[in-house]
Amino acid sequence: MEMKNMTIEDFVSKTASSEPAPGGGSVAALAGALAGALAEMVARLTIDKKGYEDVQEEMKAMANKAEKIRIQLIDDIQRDTNSFNKYMDALGMPKETEEQKETRRNAMQAGLKAAAIVPFEVANTAYGIMELAEIAVEKGNTNAVTDGLVAAMMARTAVLSALLNTKINLGSIKDEQFVREYADKVRELEIRAVEFEGKILSKSKL
Q: Rounded to two decimals, what is the model's pTM?
């Protein structure tokens, strides 16, 4: 069964088990999906509400964008686990001959790259929620302002959590150019996410 089709209780129990996946990457994707859901909710609570006539089209566009991000991140819960499993499968490959060892090493490196790229993509997708959370806090239904704030906090958590998974896998990758490229991307996105969250939270008096 795909993880997105599990009950909350089943997913949490599977995460708590001794199996290596789902792990932090899948949980980061789930956090991002929840952030997107909250931003979408604020938009839908603002559409057709008295006093918010000037932002109707913006809220409709925001709801559509948040929905797309939410759906993508729900799928990413499984995709992150699948990327990690590529590395785990490579570990189990035969290593009796030099040729087998070389094939196994290459497969392991390919698996590690996938396990670094996918969570980075998750982080990048989750970062897109922060713009929506800002709109939710600034222009959304004031009765749901805390939901916009939580969306920002969850999005930042999703970004930083996913990036941790990228960083740990970069440490075992031999391709130096690949490592440098993604290490730079990770640092930049970490800074942007933390700064953006601070900016959004500062807009509230709570």
A: 0.94
